[in-house]
Amino acid sequence: MSRLLYLDEVDSTNTYLKIRQASLPHGTVVCAARQTAGRGRYNRTWVSQEGGLYFSVLLKPPYNPFLPNLTQLMALCICQALEQFNLAPAVKWPNDVQVNNQKISGILSEAVFDKDTFQAVVLGVGINVCQDGLNNVGQPATSLQLLGVNVSRETLLSNVLQFFWQGYPALCEKGFETIRTAYLKRFAALGKQITVRDGDKTILGTAQDISPRGTLLVRSAQSLKEIYMGDVQL
Ligand code: BTN
User: Fold this and answer.
1) Which atom of ligand 1 is found nearest the CA of 32?
2) CB of 219 within 8 A of CB of 184?
């Protein structure tokens, strides 16, 4: 399914695909050994020295209401790939992956429009494999190497993509419901007290459920709130 491009160095694999998306087919994957300007959610920097897995997937589905759920599918697929090494990863809604409460992977999804017309989604993934310097990333982080797993980035990439392409057609057709049970199984915050931050808004409450469309339902003293985006802290 994937046409794979390997680069030694690039500013950001997401930027690479966004700039070239018009001339590249659906399913193109670009993977880089290091990024000089790796980007995370909320305009954060994604530190990308050699040793990590950095890749982006170019997706050109028809515009549909389930595009925001693609990151959740990818988070689930990363969990499934890590489980093959006897790890017990958890998703931190919407799309971080943690092991032992430490971040091991993040996903950045960016939609591309030409004027007002939807063109593509670029789904970028960083997985900590064996790079140094995880103390400087601004939050508790771990890597496969620190967890005692020795796997090549090529094998890991191929395993994640295999799960992703298996789940992709159903997700595009029917949405989050197709992965809800599997996702909930790996949602560690379920039933726990959480804080959700989105810009300057903060919501405190219990993580009650993930709705059939993938939004987070948080029960606070006053009400049940449906959250569409944010950073969850336990
Ligand atoms: C996050 O957790 O904030 C998302 C991090 C996403 C990082 C990946 S690495 C490959 C791709 N290229 C980028 O510049 N960012 C994504």
Assistant:
1) 10
2) no
Supply the pLDDT for residue 106: 96
Does residue 46 have its Cβ closer than 6 Å to ligand 1?
A: yes
Residue type present at position 223? S
- Distance, CA 69 to ligand 1 centroid (Å)? 17
- Distance from residue 28's CA to the centre of ligand 1 (Å): 17
SS3 169: helix
- Global pTM reads 0.96
The predicted structure's pLDDT at residue 135: 74
User: Counting beta carbons within 10 angstroms of the beta carbon of residue 95, is it exposed (0 to 12), middle (13 to 18) or buried (19 or more)?
Assistant: buried
With H, G, I as helix, E, B as strand and everything else as coil, classify residue 163.
Answer: helix
Angstrom CA distances, 216 to 131, 174, 185, 229, 231, stand at 32, 19, 14, 8, 11
Neighbours of 20 (CB within 10 A): 13
Q: Is 109 in the pocket of ligand 1 (CB under 6 A)?
A: no
